[in-house]
Design goal:
The structure is a single chain. The chain is α/β, with parallel strands linked by helices. The chain is built from seven helices and six strands, in the order E-H-E-H-E-H-E-H-H-H-H-E-E. It has one domain: 3-Layer(aba) Sandwich (Protocatechuate 4,5-dioxygenase, Chain B). A six-stranded mixed sheet has the order 3-2-4-1-6-5, with helices on both faces. The longest helix is centred in the first third of the chain and has 16 residues. The radius of gyration is 17 Å and the shape is globular. The N and C termini lie close together (7 Å). 45% of the residues are buried.
């Protein structure tokens, strides 16, 4: 239980980062409609918790804080002007920015990334930083699960991924931060579970802050990558 007036994570949403969540990229047949709807439900639940600010943490090639920029649609093959690399949001943050904008977020948003290969010390440090933020914080984590779930998957098929992905899915469905912290960074790297570092930072941020009624809103691998969407309502002040 948070102290009155102290830091409070009011809700946490988890969404994946396929660029197809940007509607302009799907063409006439919206192949990501169900996934986008689930993400909108998760982010809508985050906003409904009335946070004073939203912290976005996305898995990416490198770690960064205070990231600002524009959604680089043209880099994904979409319409619009080319966004210079220095001004382009990484994919995870571009997806988060679009979801927040489409749902009319009116609170300050702080965006950052954590490297895919971040070690346990870094994930713990980032989690503690988020947990220590003052006021009512909404946490949006953008993280993919395994990308080796079939012969056409980005990493082709690796049968080991089903057990590890299953553990991630069960953890998000039940609010089990311990199971997320137990993920092996080396094995996750082999299985292309790109969101491991972000999920473990999230678990550190929420340590000792049990979710009240966690919900898994989506779990499917339409392109050989497991996409999971979850909403963890936070503790009450």
């Amino acid at each position: 239980m948070a102290r009155e007036g102290g830091p409070l994570i009011v809700a946490t949403a988890v969404c994946p980062s396929p660029p197809l969540l940007l509607r302009e990229l799907t063409g006439g047949r919206d192949v990501a409609a169900d996934l986008r709807k689930a993400c909108e439900e998760a982010v809508g639940g985050l906003l409904a918790a009335a946070p004073d600010a939203i912290v976005v943490l996305g898995a990416d090639e490198r770690s960064a804080r205070g990231v600002r920029g524009r959604i680089p649609l043209s880099a994904f093959g979409g319409p619009g002007e080319r966004v210079p690399a220095a001004e382009a949001l990484p994919t995870s943050l571009a997806v988060a920015r679009r979801l927040l904008d489409d749902l009319g977020a009116r609170v300050p948003v702080e965006m950052g990334t954590i490297a895919f290969g971040a070690d346990p010390q870094e994930t713990a440090r980032r989690g503690r930083e988020i947990a220590a933020r003052p006021g009512r914080v909404g946490l949006l984590v953008v993280a993919d699960a395994g990308a080796r779930r079939g012969p056409r998957a980005p990493g082709h098929l690796d049968e080991r991924t089903f057990a590890v992905d299953g553990a991630v899915r069960a953890a998000l469905a039940s609010g089990d931060t311990g199971a997320l912290l137990a993920l092996d960074p080396g094995l996750c790297a082999e299985l292309l579970i790109g969101g491991r570092s972000a999920l473990q930072a999230m678990a550190h941020a929420l340590a000792g802050r049990p979710a009240a009624g966690p919900r898994l809103l989506y779990a499917d691998d339409p392109f050989g990558v497991l996409y999971l969407v979850a909403l963890w309502p936070g503790e009450r002040p």
